[in-house]
Amino acid sequence: MSDDVEISSQLGTTKGKEGLEDRLKVYTGWQNAHHVKHTEVQLLPDGQLSLEADILYQNIRPDNSKYSYTLHYSTELQPRENDLPLFTKLDLKPTGEVKEFIFEDAYPENRVKSFMHYWLYLMENPNSDKFRELLAADFALQLSAGQNITALPEFDEWMKSISSRILTSSHSYNNLKIVDNEDNTFTVFVDFDWKGININNEKMIAETHHEWLLTNNMEERFARMKTMKVTIIKPFQVVTDF
Question: Is the pTM of this model over 0.90?
């Protein structure tokens, strides 16, 4: 969040993030789950970003009372070069109440997806220094070409090799499966559809299957990659059009 973030909800509007941690202490002891149902991101004319999101919120309070609401988030963010954007405005509005529900923990999915999206962002905007926040100390990456990377210098060279061959790229994911191992690790299975343009301005595609083991420390911004195994579904190839 930006230092002067504006937050609006049923409780009113506050300016600035100072004291936010104290305000959140009212939720101590609650079981909370935010299930993201829909998001839409747009670039605004002034260069800001807008993020609209529909959320299914569930909670169980210390007295075992249960509540669930649907919420709509209208937000604005300030982009930053080579870094995550900052929220400048958040407007939270309830859109409905769910009377009967079974509580489902959303943390594993939200934690893994936040890691995945940031990992992909860094792959599409190569910056090997930023990856240090996402790699475990004893990481081991098995790439689709059979290459094994277990040290930062090797990882840096791999990232440089991508930048020397690919001008732009994008990833979309399918078949995401997350297993909470209940030992502060997550096992992740996911397929990626990749599109890119190489240094010869040729369009390229590929499909890969990934198996990840992520370690998780809740005090850190993101989980960390301990192992990754990549297998080819559709080989990297030049195409006439996407």
Answer: yes
d(CA 35, CA 56): 5
Q: Token digits for 179?
A: 């297993």
Provide the token pair at 117: 């999206």
Distance CA 142, CA 147 (A): 6
- Write the single-letter amino acid at 99: K
104 touches 58 (CB < 8 A): yes
> Which residue from 242, 236, 10, 228 is spatially nearest to 120, judged by alpha carbons?
228
In angstroms, rounded to a whole number, what is the distance separating the alpha carbons of residues 220 and 55? Answer: 24
In the block, tokens 């990754």 appear at 228
What is the mean pLDDT, run by run of 10 residues, along the chain of 242 residues?
A: 94 89 89 97 96 98 96 97 93 96 97 97 88 97 92 94 94 98 98 97 97 97 98 96 90
DSSP secondary structure code for residue 233 in this structure: E
